[in-house]
Write a structure and sequence with these properties.
Elements: E1 7-15, H1 40-53, E2 55-59, E3 64-69, E4 76-79, H2 81-90, H3 92-109, E5 116-117, H4 129-147, E6 154-155, H5 163-171, E7 176-179, E8 184-188, E9 196-197, E10 209-212, E11 218-223, H6 226-233, H7 241-249, E12 260-267, H8 278-288, E13 295-296, H9 299-305, E14 310-314, H10 348-370, H11 377-383, H12 385-388, H13 396-404, H14 410-428, H15 433-436, H16 443-463, H17 468-475, H18 488-496, H19 503-516, E15 527-530, E16 533-545, E17 548-559, E18 565-576, E19 579-586, H20 590-601, H21 609-619, H22 632-670, H23 677-700, H24 705-722, H25 729-749, H26 752-767, H27 775-783, H28 785-789, H29 794-803, H30 808-814, H31 821-830
Parallel strand pairs: 1-4, 1-12, 1-13, 5-6, 7-11, 10-14
Antiparallel strand pairs: 2-3, 8-9, 8-14, 10-11, 15-16, 16-17, 17-18, 18-19
């Protein structure tokens, strides 16, 4: 009897965000549209990338947590290399969960869940042949670096494909990719059967297909199920775990006699960011699918179980998100997102033309100048990914010598790194998101213009040639939908070019920030890291007189990326409030630097403010840097610092107003008379300060949590009586830090007193009406439950489970203390 055909399911998540780093400092700056998070990477990590590495399965008592699982163990997935680079720095826990899931899948299935992706999500069919090879080879190199194995598959950005792109994958040993069913042109059965038209997705997508390539080679293609993918991304497919299972089951057809491989591919952000709670729905469905007779596989495993016997032809220059192929990234095809009625995308073609010409001119400069330094310039450019994966460039000297065939002189090495970094920026300026949306002045398009501006700057520094005038001329042809912005040239000038910064600007940033925050200074000669620069302050002197503070520094800055250096004397003057002035002068030796110090400090207490300013201007001629020249995160941090100082000066006044009028306000409430607004404001500020001060003492260790409860309660009750609105964000942040630290201590050493304090802290947040982000604490307790909770009696364990939203019995079993907690909680609630 013939065995029943297998039902194999591969659910693939394409996880990607466009690179968002400021090209001059290699860090993501604050993005207000992502509030309350710092930036969109951070927000989507909190909503999707992190939760999928620790997804909650809920049930038990009122939807409480019964398990925490890593969804990446069961998903096929790819992550954009530039996104993973950010996660490695800024979201380590989520990053490690992804790597661990792939390693586990290799052990369990013989094939990894992860597949590679083009380096910075450029549309590969629109790349030059040389850049196509670079995008593929850099994507593969990044994958090997992170996952420590060879990738079997490769995700094409936007699934954009043609035979040249598939051939580039095959050249690198890639075995398969994933495409939309609408990218299939024709299919045929084995044995020379006739070709059948497959346009409009009219074919069986439940098997892998072999696509023939020039030269007698081939590559396997999985075509995902379009209707199911749409229901997950845009419909109700993720409304519940049960509904997701039902939708996935519908993709199998009992009439098909062959083993079926159902591939469903969606943006990974669907699971939690686009669809809130999608990570939990996915976890619930993944738990239920095996009982429905469905085997979850990854694509490499599916290829082994069901080698392709049918053939397919693809539509050339097609993609998954544009019905017109790849036109979305080079013309006004009608596909857009986020636009207003009447907006057009006439700007796309001129933008690509401008960037194409700029790329050609940059490549010509690279060919000419790098040819003087490297044995094979474009082989060096392709191998440059080795240094890109080492942000500190620790191996750069040996790498340069290897590709130059000799040890380069310092000036030659700097030029070589400038040229290579110029070419990296030239790749980044073709990131697909620059064309995806509706308006030329959008965040993503301005970002690619910033990459262009950085590439132009690096070209000027490396070769002396200025490519910007011609680039701006071409951008005049790109019309904006917003009349006030006119065209691409104005957008470049007003939204991209102001971000351009020199090494002198970075030095001024470091100097102003150091004086403004009044932090203790390190010993002369100590090195610090400021963004992607190494800073060594070799000499420094700081003095204050009245409202004026002055610091003079001898500092050396070195770019970690290009080895550019700045050796300078720097003067920073703080006049008052937000008024900072900074000047730089090239280093001319210790004698002249000491003379600068003597000229400024010897008469600092004798000169008027105007005279001090004139003296600084005389000794440090040229560009005058102010607080406005700081990068935005530091600018806001210092603004908050200065504002905090101002507010603290007036806190005593508000407190005195409140204390002097407290009885009057209480009397007004007793007689049901409204409290005047100014008095309510004074009460709110004074009482908010009392709450924060009590919690600050707990954080400092000078007060127990139980002791802080009474003053916090009094402040809350007083605010309620007086109808004063408390400002509790500082309290929420303190409570969050306290819970995290006490949970860490509990997991490290155990102990009823620590568990009790965690409970008290969460209860204190409840009293204040604050919602704490308990996700990290829950993860740690769940991972360390046996060690952390084994010493707890059932009642205390039950209360801890209750406050951290666990199912009590499940946590007890995990801690090895089954029985008791649920009944204990019930008794406490009843009382």
């Amino acid at each position: 009897m013939r065995p029943m055909p297998r039902r194999l399911l591969c659910l693939h998540g394409h996880f990607y965000q466009p690179p968002r780093e400021n090209p001059w400092i290699e860090e993501v700056e604050v993005q207000d549209s992502a509030a309350p998070f710092h930036d969109w990477n951070e927000r989507i990590t909190a909503e999707c990338y992190g939760p999928n590495g620790a997804a909650r399965l809920k049930g038990g008592d009122g939807g409480r947590i019964v398990d925490i699982v890593n969804n990446y163990l069961h998903l096929s997935f790819n992550f954009g290399p530039t996104l993973l680079a950010w996660m490695e720095r800024e979201a380590t826990e989520a990053y490690q969960a992804i790597l661990a899931a792939d390693a586990e899948s290799v052990r369990e299935r013989g094939h990894g869940n992860a597949i590679a992706q083009g380096y910075n999500h450029a549309i590969l069919p629109l790349c030059t042949p040389r850049d196509l090879r670079l995008q593929v080879s850099w994507g593969l190199a990044d994958f090997r670096h992170r996952f420590h194995r060879e990738p079997e598959g490769f995700w094409l950005p936007e699934c954009a494909a043609d035979l040249a792109t598939l051939s580039a994958l095959a050249d690198e040993g890639v075995r398969f990719t994933v495409l939309s069913p609408f990218q299939c042109a024709a299919v045929r059965a084995p044995g020379g059967a006739p070709w059948q038209d497959a346009t409009g997705a009219h074919f069986d997508p439940s098997r892998p297909y072999r696509v023939a390539l020039p030269g007698g080679r081939s590559i396997a293609v999985f075509f995902y199920d379009g209707p199911i993918a749409r229901s997950l991304a845009f419909g109700e497919g993720l409304s519940s775990g049960e509904e997701l299972v039902r939708r996935l089951e519908s993709g199998f057809d009992a009439a098909r006699p062959h083993d079926q491989v159902l591939t469903v591919a969606v943006d990974g952000e669907t699971f939690g960011h686009h669809k809130k709670g999608g990570d939990e729905v996915l976890a619930r469905a993944l738990r239920r699918l095996p009982s429905a007779g469905i085997q979850i596989v990854n694509l490499g495993q599916a290829l082994e179980l069901c080698p392709p016997t049918f053939e397919a032809k693809i539509l050339e220059r097609s993609s998954w998100s544009c019905a017109h192929g790849v036109e979305r990234w080079r013309s006004d095809c009608g596909c857009e997102a986020g636009g207003r009625p009447g907006w057009r995308q006439h700007w796309r073609a001129p933008l690509r033309a401008a960037l194409d010409e700029l790329r050609g001119r940059l490549e010509a400069l690279f060919t000419r100048e790098a040819g003087k330094l490297f044995k094979e310039p474009f082989a060096a450019r392709e191998a440059f990914v080795e240094l890109v994966l080492d942000p500190a460039r620790t191996q750069a000297r040996d790498w340069l010598a290897r590709h130059a065939g000799r040890a380069l002189e310092p000036d030659e090495a700097r030029t070589a790194l400038l040229l290579l970094e110029m070419e990296r920026q030239a790749q980044l300026m073709f990131t697909s998101c620059g064309w995806f949306f509706s308006e030329l002045s959008g965040l993503e398009t301005v970002q690619v213009l910033k990459y262009a501006a950085r590439a132009i700057q690096l070209a000027l520094e490396a070769t002396g040639e200025d490519l910007e005038p011609r680039f701006r001329e071409l951008l005049l042809l790109a019309p904006s939908n917003l009349p006030e912005l006119s065209d691409g040239a104005r957008i470049y000038r007003t939204l991209a070019a102001p971000s351009v910064v020199t090494i002198e600007g970075v030095a001024a940033h470091a100097a102003i920030a150091g004086l403004a925050d009044r932090s203790p200074r390190g010993e002369p000669g100590e090195e610090a890291r400021v963004f992607c620069y190494r800073v060594e302050a070799r000499q420094r002197r700081r003095e204050s007189t009245g409202p004026i503070a002055l610091e003079v520094i001898h500092a050396e800055l070195t770019s970690l990326l290009t080895w550019q250096k700045l050796n300078a004397s720097i003067a920073v003057l703080h006049l008052s409030g937000s008024d900072f002035r900074c000047g730089l002068s090239p280093w001319r030796g210790p004698a002249e630097h000491l003379e600068l110090e003597r000229a400024l400090f010897s008469r600092l207490d004798k000169l008027s403010l105007a005279q001090v300013l004139r003296e600084v201007d005389r000794l440090f001629p040229g560009r005058d840097f102010t607080l406005r020249d700081l990068f935005i995160d530091e600018r806001r941090r210092l603004a908050a610092l200065l504002l905090g100082e101002t507010l603290r000066k007036h806190e005593r006044d508000y407190f005195q107003i409140y204390e002097s009028n407290r009885r009057l306000m209480e009397f007004l409430r007793e007689i049901d008379s409204p409290v005047p607004g100014p008095l309510r404001i004074a009460a709110a500020l004074a009482l908010s300060h009392q709450v924060d001060e009590a919690l600050a003492q707990v954080e400092e260790g000078t007060r127990q949590t139980a002791e802080a409860r009474e003053p916090v309660l009094r402040a809350v009750q007083s605010a309620q009586r007086l109808q004063a609105r408390l400002e509790l964000e500082p309290a929420r942040l303190r409570l969050h830090r306290l819970v995290e630290s006490r949970v860490a201590e509990l997991c490290a050493s155990g102990g009823p007193e620590l568990a009790g304090e965690v409970i008290e802290l969460v209860e204190l947040a409840e009293v204040l009406g604050l919602h704490l982000h308990l996700w990290p604490a829950q993860n740690r307790i769940w991972a360390e439950a046996q060690r952390a909770c084994s010493a707890l009696d059932p009642a205390l364990l039950g209360r801890l489970a209750d406050k951290l939203w666990f199912d009590a019995e499940t946590l007890a079993v995990r801690a090895g203390k089954a029985g008791g907690p649920r009944a204990a909680i019930a008794r406490q609630r009843a009382s």
